[in-house]
Amino acid sequence: MLAQLGAHPGPLFESSSFTRQPRETTTRQFKAFLRGHRLALALDQLDDDTTSIVQKLRQLSSLDLVDESKGKEEAWDCLLEVEVAARMRFGPIRPRLADVDLLFEDGDGSRFGAECKRPRQAAKIPQRVRDACGQLRKRSLGGIVVVGVDHLLPDVIRLSGSDSSARIGRRLIEKAIGSEIESTRQALSVNSGGPILQAIWGVVVCAPFFTYTHVSATEGVANFSFATRLIANPAVPNAHQLLLHLDQSLKIGQMELNQSKLSGSRDHDSM
């Protein structure tokens, strides 16, 4: 299984674009459209034949795309799980939704898991990572913790000049969680003994975010990106390399999702 993780070389793209044209009524509606785009990208490529997908869809049905505060927090947590699963399905080992948020199984019987957390405050990240490590150990699984920080970012970021989504994503993550990176690393399970598949390799911080760039007086381009930041467990040999392979699968998945583009009419003046 570990050898398979590095089986997908290639370019790493991380964004999908769609052009917005005139006549948007409100910024609120524009943001709702962007959130709907985010959900559609994930669901369009999700491929899971277990009953878990039915449960996830029920949770997602309570999403309020206009006002996140009105929806159930569990629904947004579920969206993170589905987004990661949709991207990872293009990798060498496809995950499935399970009791553990994501379960990766190989034909030789080896497996590892991923617990997805979406703390409401940056200061809560270390404790949520500890909780996730405990959940994985309870199921005798090693693997990773996925931490979503989209709610810690601005709704939409304007791009100008030489800005790129990749650079913006890195800066946004550092700004959102920079003070908690070291404490998050310390919170990782110090499980350096035994098989690597029973160790917690580290944390993949995911930052789904939107940018908007004016291209003319009446038109702009909205861009959805999925930036990541890796925090390896220093107690686990080769942990950073394993995280890099998983991160590459996420970015290859985003490249595939780029083929699903939505378009419609929006007024740049509402941004």
How many β-strands, per DSSP?
9
Cα distance, first to last residue? 46 Å
State the helix count: 8
The helix fraction, in percent, is 25-40%
Shape, please? globular
Tell me the series of helices and strands, N- to C-terminal. HEHHHEEEHEEHHEEHE
Task: Name the poorly predicted regions.
Answer: 5-25, 261-271
Query: Tell me about the biggest sheet?
Result: 9 strands, mixed
Alpha-beta content class: alpha/beta
Percent of sequence in beta strands: 15-25%
How many separate structural domains?
A: 1
Q: What does the radius of gyration come to? A: 18 Å
Mean pLDDT: 76
Polypeptide structure, described:
By secondary structure, this protein is an alpha/beta fold. The chain has one domain (about 1-270). The protein has helices at about 1-5, 25-45, 50-60, 75-90, 125-140, 165-175, 180-185, 240-255, and strands spanning about 15-20, 95, 100-105, 110-115, 145-150, 155-160, 200-215, 220-230, 265. Strands 1, 2, 3, 4, 5, 6, 7, 8 and 9 form a nine-stranded mixed beta sheet that branches. Helix 2 (about 25-45) packs across helix 4 and helix 4 crosses helix 8 (about 240-255). The longest helix is centred in the N-terminal third of the chain and has 19 residues, at about 25-45. Residues about 5-25 and about 260-270 have low confidence and may be disordered.
